[in-house]
C-alpha cells in the first residue's frame, strides 16, 4: 500500500510539473494536459495520499525505511535537476539523465527493496532478476516514447534516440538474457525472469501491431504488459 501511494504521488507530481505553463515542453501528451486541467483534484489527492503514507511509515521495517529514504533522496535530486532547476536550452536538457533510464533505475529499486531489506542474503541471488526487470521498465518507457514521437526525436537524450532506433534488437537481447537466467537460476528467481521475458515479448508484439491500436489503448496495453507476474502466481505456490 505504501509503495502504491508513493508511486502514484511521484507519477502525478511529475505530470503536474511537466505541464507547468511557465515551462515550454513541446513533447507534452494528452496525459500531461489532463493533469494540468485537473491539477486541483490531483493536488488534493497528493495531499491525502501523503497523510496516508505518513501513517504507514511506522509499519515499515527500519532497514527498508533506510533504503527507501536513500532512494527518495536520489529521486528528489533528479526531480530538482529536471523540474525545479530546468533549462530553456535544449542542448543542455539533452545531456540530462532521460526519464526512460530514470524509471529503469528507481522503480525496480523500490520494488525489490522490501524483499532485500527483510532478507539481505537474497541480494546477490535477486540481482539478475532485478536488473532484467529494470530493463523491462526501461523498454516500456522507450516503446511509449517511440510510439508517441515517431519523428526524428532530435530533442531526446542521445541514449533515447539510439534505443528507440533499435528497440526490436534490444528487446531480443533482453529476452535472450531472460531465457539464460531462467535456465540457470533457482526456481523462484527463474519465474521472475520468465515474467520479465514474457513482458518483453508482449511489448515487442505491441510494437509490431501498433497500427491496429489507438494511442490511448496502445499505452494502456504497454502498461498491462508489466503485469505478467500475476500469471505466474499459481506456479509459485
Secondary-structure map:
Elements: H1 2-18, H2 30-37, H3 39-56, H4 62-84, H5 90-93, H6 99-118, H7 123-148, H8 158-165, H9 167-184, H10 187-208, H11 215-224
Helix pairs in contact: 1-2, 1-3, 4-6, 6-7, 7-8, 7-9, 7-10, 7-11, 9-10
Protein model, in words:
This protein folds into two domains: 1-59, no CATH class; 62-236, no CATH class. Helices cover 73% and strands 0% of the residues. It contains eleven helices and no strands. It has helices at residues 2-18, 30-37, 39-56, 62-84, 90-93, 99-118, 123-148, 158-165, 167-184, 187-208, 215-224. Helix 7 (123-148) runs antiparallel to helix 9 (167-184). The radius of gyration is 19 Å and the shape is globular. The relative contact order is 0.09. Mean pLDDT is 85; it is low at 89-95.
Shape: globular
Proportion of β residues?
Answer: under 5%
- Total helix count? 11
Structural class: mainly alpha
Computed Rg? 19 Å
* Low-confidence parts: 89-95
Quaternary form: single chain
Number of strands: 0
- The helix content, as a percent range, equals over 70%
Sheet with most strands: none
What number is the mean pLDDT? 85
The number of domains is 2
- In N-to-C order, the SSE pattern is HHHHHHHHHHH
User: How far do the termini sit from each other?
Assistant: 23 Å
Amino acid at each position: 500500500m505504501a509503495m502504491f501511494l508513493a508511486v502514484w504521488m511521484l507519477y502525478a507530481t511529475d505530470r503536474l510539473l511537466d505541464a507547468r505553463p511557465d515551462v515550454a515542453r513541446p513533447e507534452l501528451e494528452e496525459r500531461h494536459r489532463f493533469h494540468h486541467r485537473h491539477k486541483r483534484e490531483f493536488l488534493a489527492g497528493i495531499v491525502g495520499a501523503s497523510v496516508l503514507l505518513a501513517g504507514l511509515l511506522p509499519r515499515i521495517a527500519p532497514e527498508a525505511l533506510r533504503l527507501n529514504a536513500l532512494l527518495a533522496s536520489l529521486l528528489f535530486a533528479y526531480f530538482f535537476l529536471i523540474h525545479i532547476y530546468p533549462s530553456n536550452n535544449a542542448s543542455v536538457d539533452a545531456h540530462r539523465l532521460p526519464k526512460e533510464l530514470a524509471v529503469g533505475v528507481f522503480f525496480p529499486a523500490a520494488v525489490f527493496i522490501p524483499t532485500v531489506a527483510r532478507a539481505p542474503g537474497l541480494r546477490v541471488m535477486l540481482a539478475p532478476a532485478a536488473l532484467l526487470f529494470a530493463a523491462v521498465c526501461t523498454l516500456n518507457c522507450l516503446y511509449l516514447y517511440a510510439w508517441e514521437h515517431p519523428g526524428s526525436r532530435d530533442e531526446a537524450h542521445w541514449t533515447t534516440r539510439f534505443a528507440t532506433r533499435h528497440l526490436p534488437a534490444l528487446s531480443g537481447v533482453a529476452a535472450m538474457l531472460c531465457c539464460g537466467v531462467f535456465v540457470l537460476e533457482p526456481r523462484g528467481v527463474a519465474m521472475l525472469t520468465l515474467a520479465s521475458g514474457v513482458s518483453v515479448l508482449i511489448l515487442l508484439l505491441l510494437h509490431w501491431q501498433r497500427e491496429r491500436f489507438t494511442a490511448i489503448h496502445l499505452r494502456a496495453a504497454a502498461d498491462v504488459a508489466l503485469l505478467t507476474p500475476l500469471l505466474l502466481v499459481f506456479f509459485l505456490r
